[in-house]
Amino acid sequence: MTKTYKIYGANGHRQRSSFGKSVIMDFGRCTIEIQTAEITGTNEYTLVSITAPEGFDFTAELEGQISDGFFENDRVGHWEEV
Prior knowledge:
The chain is an alpha+beta fold. The chain has helices at residues 37-40, 58-68; strands spanning 2-9, 23-26, 31-35, 45-51, 76-81. It is globular and about 35 Å long.
């Protein structure tokens, strides 16, 4: 099962990670694909796709990536599932 989210920068700011390279990370329990401006064509948001088995807590994983994972040095505004 895969869920995809748009991660936006803080109000009035572009999404910092969108300026970097896209990446795929395999954690064993889940795979996370980060799509930056090189794929999305914008710095307004970064796309995050999480693939994991049914019953996986996607929201907790995403919030973990925002607080102390891939986005820990970014000023994240809000996120939404797409």
